[in-house]
């Protein structure tokens, strides 16, 4: 809730017109989806699997330092591909239209400790529906950080740079805990809730399998390279976690991104929903390789407008979306990765300290619209 | 420990190595046709038969159990990136040396899969296969006299039979618009020249549609023959009525290619087959709301088509995407987003 509403200059009609223009962009991509897109995701999946196999193979000889280096680098990239360009996007249903039961949001399981099913609920449903609405979208600070001046300050927030750093290193566990709504459910009464217990059990099972694979089976298979392979898998997971955390922080945390009040989404129209996605997300600029490694989440704005479009289409969609930002005089928040990461971290540090209440009250968007 | 138990343990260990994927996900990369894999086939060649029909030579995976002459196979082909399943009669004999099977496909107007297979399919392409099935087959005991009554692509299962089993006395009446539209025409004529078959071609463009009463004149002893008929519904309906009328319906075997054609309209009767509820739905209300109002437990999420938390199998009928107007017809394995789909005619939702 910034002091000045950057969308205040738009009339209700303009917002609905904007919505229609975005729908048209979506329809065009949907109508053009086809063989090339299917071939793309199949290729990515095949390359990821081969890269993972090869890296694990090289790590069998990881006592030999160059092998350790190559294997660890390969495995890190493979894990990033699995989580970002493949897992995240398949679980969004971006490839469901292919009707291939093996590449489908209902069957996909990723190399991650949070079971797909739980992540889909907290991410696809809660985060994507209530993007940046304080109190509704827990992705705002993940419940451990204060990310807006209007949020109440608590001495606990003094440590938030540290919490954020720890979260980055063990991000997949952070997400699993987050998907479980662990903080909320640790109360004595809630702990006994059978539904929560079933979900906690599923996470436990997934963690056990993931840990067994990465830290027991593969090191054991490496024989004399046991310890070096263990170190390699730990490093690959760490690299993947820090990378995905950084990318995801760039999506909604950089300066210039708006957050919203609960009451502002009451009776929200399609156009207003689109507008909130536009103002609540931020992009990362960069090369094709960079977009690929972020799972095209560098096109976070486009992803939030159209979460179910195939990821390989976001780049072309971005050109049209950006033109709409210009047409409607809205700020398209984007920048190179280091700048966006720094910007997000800067906010984390800044808001760890208390601040004065902003002087200008947030204009009530609904009233504004009525007035217009 | 028995060897089976040992193997199952080894497999379990392997699954731990590849978790969360399965060992087969990796094996499929190198050997998609191996034993134990999901059944697939590879297209090895596509031979044109007529202007709009072609024979597709398929090398089936190791799990293929073989077919009986006259049976069909369901194949899953990716057309414009979308996997579509269709059934085609197998036209190759059961004892083909190289283990390949063929289907012969006639491109029907607006047919996505048939046009793709006839005109665009490339050798080397992987397709999905089901095991062959169908009871349009020969009986155990060889009939003394046989009649094949076919029209258009209805000849395909019969060709599978003709190539597979020789009978002493076989008559075929085949209908096609023009001589050049007769699929397998050269082969049929060769068989006729060798006296293995008595063939009557009916060219409907010049002769008109076959009047079933004309059978008396074309095949005077038709009622004493074991008959296999395959072709459009009109022909089969007429044949069934004719055979029944003469009290010999047990000698007639028919095969229908397209049992039900989905008509996409606006709204319709929605059946929630798991719950056993049926309600009327208009063409503008999401099926999620229709189900909830009827008291069916529907999975739901964002209610705006973005989270894919409400996807549900569409068992029959057709639905319309309320955002794009796109029609989705029921096929095995088709899931729909109930929050942005409305009934486009009668449909069956598995809830």
From TrEMBL, chain A:
This is Acyl-CoA desaturase. It holds the Pfam family FA_desaturase. Its EC number is 1.14.19.-. One of its GO terms (molecular function) is oxidoreductase activity. The keyword Cell inner membrane does not apply. Keywords: Oxidoreductase. Coiled coil: none annotated. Residues 67-334 form the Fatty acid desaturase domain. InterPro entries: FA_desaturase_dom, Fatty_acid_desaturase.
TrEMBL record, chain B:
The keyword Iron applies. This is Ferredoxin reductase. Residues 268-351 form the 2Fe-2S ferredoxin-type domain. Residues 36-139 form the FAD-binding FR-type domain. It comes from the Bacteria. The lineage of its organism: Bacteria, Bacillati, Actinomycetota, Actinomycetes, Kitasatosporales. It comes from Streptomyces glycanivorans. CDD domains: fer2 (cd00207), FNR_iron_sulfur_binding_2 (cd06216). The keyword Flavoprotein applies. It holds the Pfam family FAD_binding_6. InterPro entries: 2Fe-2S_ferredoxin-like_sf, 2Fe-2S_ferredoxin-type, Beta-grasp_dom_sf, Cbr1-like_FAD-bd_dom, FAD-bd_FR_type, FNR_nucleotide-bd, MRET, OxRdtase_FAD/NAD-bd. Keywords: 2Fe-2S, FAD, Flavoprotein, Iron, Iron-sulfur, Metal-binding, Oxidoreductase. Its cofactor is FAD.
């Amino acid at each position: 809730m910034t002091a000045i509403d950057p969308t205040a200059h738009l009339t209700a009609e303009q917002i609905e017109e904007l919505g229609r223009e975005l729908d048209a962009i979506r329809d065009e991509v949907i109508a053009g989806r086809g063989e090339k897109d299917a071939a793309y995701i199949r290729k990515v999946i095949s390359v990821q699997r081969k890269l993972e196999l090869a890296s694990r193979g090289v790590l069998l000889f990881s006592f030999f330092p160059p092998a350790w280096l190559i294997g660890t680098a390969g495995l890190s990239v493979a894990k990033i591909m699995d989580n970002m360009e493949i897992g995240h996007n398949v679980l969004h249903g971006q490839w469901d239209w292919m009707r291939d039961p093996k590449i489908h949001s209902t069957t996909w399981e990723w190399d991650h400790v949070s079971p797909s099913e739980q992540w889909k609920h907290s991410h696809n449903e809660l985060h994507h529906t209530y993007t940046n609405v304080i109190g509704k979208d827990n992705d705002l600070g993940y419940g451990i950080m204060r990310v807006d001046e209007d949020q109440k300050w608590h001495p606990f927030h003094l440590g938030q740079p540290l919490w954020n750093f720890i979260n980055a290193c063990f991000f997949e566990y952070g997400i699993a805990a987050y998907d479980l709504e662990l903080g909320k459910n640790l109360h004595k009464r809630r702990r006994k809730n059978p539904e929560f217990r079933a979900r906690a059990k599923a996470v436990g099972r997934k963690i056990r399998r993931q840990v067994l694979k990465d830290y027991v089976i593969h090191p054991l298979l490496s024989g004399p390279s046991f310890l070096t392979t263990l170190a390699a898998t730990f490093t690959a997971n760490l690299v993947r976690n820090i990378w995905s955390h950084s990318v995801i922080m760039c999506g909604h945390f950089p300066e210039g991104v708006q957050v919203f009040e609960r009451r502002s989404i009451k009776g929200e129209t399609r156009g207003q929903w689109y507008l909130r996605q536009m103002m609540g997300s931020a992009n990362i600029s960069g090369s094709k390789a960079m977009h690929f490694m972020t799972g095209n989440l560098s096109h976070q704005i486009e992803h939030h407008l159209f979460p179910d479009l195939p990821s390989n289409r976001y780049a072309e969609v971005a050109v049209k979306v950006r033109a709409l930002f210009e047409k409607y005089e809205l700020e398209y928040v984007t920048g190179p990765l280091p700048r966006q990461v720094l910007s997000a971290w800067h906010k984390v540090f800044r808001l760890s300290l208390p601040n004065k209440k902003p002087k200008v009250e947030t204009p009530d968007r609904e009233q504004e619209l009525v007035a217009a | 420990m028995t060897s089976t138990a040992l193997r199952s343990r080894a497999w379990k260990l392997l699954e731990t190595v590849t978790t969360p994927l399965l060992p087969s996900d990796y094996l499929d990369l190198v050997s998609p046709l191996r034993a134990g894999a999901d059944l697939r086939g590879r297209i090895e060649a596509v031979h044109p038969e007529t202007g709009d029909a072609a024979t597709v030579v398929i090398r089936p995976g190791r799990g293929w159990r073989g077919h009986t002459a006259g049976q069909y196979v369901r194949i899953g082909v990716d057309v414009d990136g979308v996997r579509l399943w269709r059934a085609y009669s197998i036209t190759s004999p059961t004892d083909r040396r190289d283990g390949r099977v063929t289907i012969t496909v006639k491109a029907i107007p607006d047919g996505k899969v048939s046009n793709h297979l006839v005109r665009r399919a490339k050798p080397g392409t992987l397709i999905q296969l089901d095991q062959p099935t169908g009871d349009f087959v020969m009986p155990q005991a060889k009939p003394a006299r046989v009649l094949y009554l076919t029209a258009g692509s209805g000849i395909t299962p019969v060709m599978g039979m003709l190539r597979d089993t020789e009978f002493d006395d076989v008559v075929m009446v085949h209908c096609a618009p023009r001589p050049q539209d007769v699929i397998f025409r050269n082969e049929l004529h060769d068989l006729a020249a060798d006296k293995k078959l008595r063939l009557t071609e009916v060219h409907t463009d010049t002769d008109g549609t076959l009047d079933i009463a004309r059978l008396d004149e074309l095949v005077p002893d038709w009622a004493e023959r074991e008959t296999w008929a395959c072709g459009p519904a009109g022909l089969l309906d007429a044949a069934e009525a004719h055979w029944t009328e003469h009290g010999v319906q047990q000698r007639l075997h028919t095969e229908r290619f397209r049992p039900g054609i989905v008509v996409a309209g606006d709204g319709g009767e929605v059946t929630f087959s798991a719950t056993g509820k049926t309600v009327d739905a208009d063409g503008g209300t999401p099926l999620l709301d229709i189900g909830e109002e009827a008291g069916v437990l529907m999975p739901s999420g964002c209610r705006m088509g973005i989270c894919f938390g409400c996807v549900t199998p569409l068992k029959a009928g057709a639905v319309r995407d309320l955002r794009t107007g796109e029609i989705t017809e029921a096929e095995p394995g088709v899931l729909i987003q109930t929050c942005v789909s409305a009934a486009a005619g009668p449909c069956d939702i598995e809830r």
